[in-house]
Design goal:
Elements lengths: L4 H17 L3 E6 L5 E3 L2 E3 L10 E3 L3 H9 L3 E3 L13 H7 L3 E9 L2 E10 L7 H31 L10 H17 L6 H16 L15 H11 L4 H8 L3 H15 L4 H10 L5
């Protein structure tokens, strides 16, 4: 089964946390509900004692970070008076002493928690806190993208795909297609990315009976992304911002698409792409 953001993005964030902070151990997981997080990913751990541990809001260091919605740290976990000690056995099995926990907060709601730890009782400095917060932000951004994609997919499944639909309905379909295409490169979950591309393909092919010319033109994914932006009236600079590209790169993709479509202007390229079933 393809790995989800819970695995893929969390693994990347934990690796980054270790590299940027110098901490030997990092671990974390997403919330299963409003009050419980499950430690699903470990990096640098010597045992499996922490894996699968369910952290309740308010309990232990991570639970405190979840409840307060802010980073928390202890210099010596076993003896700290500022946290509860429900998870001491697992922490002791891994030999952890100095620990920082950072919540992953999306739109003011805690969605996960990341930890970084030392096996010595040493006070953690600002560099370590900054690295942990940056790693949590990585996961936050991945979740934001996934939420946007899932919301768009849910809406798009209900979009009008009748070729006889009113022009304003087709504009909604085209806008959904552009937004979905712009999110594809940001999606970490392979299964979600495949679904996203499949929906984009269905939206584009929805115009099939409206075509006046046969298809057959093949464009690279980024060329389609750029054309989708151009079709919405975006300038090269605006398209670059939406797609996370340089304006010069957008120009290159647009020129390539125009050449393949036999178009001499941006408008001709959009019209040709629609006729070929590449855009809705």
């Amino acid at each position: 089964m393809p790995e989800s953001v819970d695995a893929v993005e969390m693994q990347a964030a934990l690796l980054r946390l270790r590299r940027t902070s110098g901490l030997p151990v990092a671990f974390g997981g997403l919330l299963a509900d409003a009050r419980h997080a499950r430690i699903a990913e470990l990096n640098g751990a010597q045992t499996a004692a922490l894996r699968g541990l369910v952290i309740s809001a308010g309990s232990g260091l991570g639970g405190k970070a979840i409840a307060l919605s802010r980073p928390c740290a202890v210099t010596d976990y076993p003896s700290s008076r500022h946290i509860s000690h429900e998870y001491d056995l697992a922490v002791a099995a891994e030999g952890l002493r100095s620990v920082v926990a950072v919540p992953v907060v999306v739109r003011r709601r805690v969605r996960g928690v990341l930890y970084g730890a030392l096996r010595e009782p040493i006070t953690l400095g600002d560099r370590t806190f900054d690295a942990a917060v940056a790693a949590a932000r990585d996961v936050e951004q991945a979740l934001v993208v996934r939420d946007e994609v899932q919301q768009l997919l849910a809406t798009t499944r209900e979009q009008v795909t009748d070729p006889r639909a009113a022009p304003e309905a087709w504009e909604d379909v085209r806008e959904a297609h552009r937004e979905l295409r712009s999110l594809v490169p940001k999606v970490v979950d392979p299964a979600l990315r495949d679904e996203l591309l499949a929906v984009c393909g269905r939206l584009a092919s929805a115009a099939g009976s409206r075509r006046t010319e046969p298809g057959g033109v093949r464009l690279a994914p980024r060329e389609v992304d750029v054309l989708a932006c151009v079709a919405s009236g975006a300038t090269n600079a605006a398209a670059a911002k939406r797609l996370g590209l340089r304006p010069e790169t957008v120009k290159g993709y647009l020129r390539a698409a125009m050449r393949k479509l036999g178009a001499h202007t941006r408008l001709e390229a959009v019209v040709a792409a629609r006729r070929a079933g590449l855009l809705p």
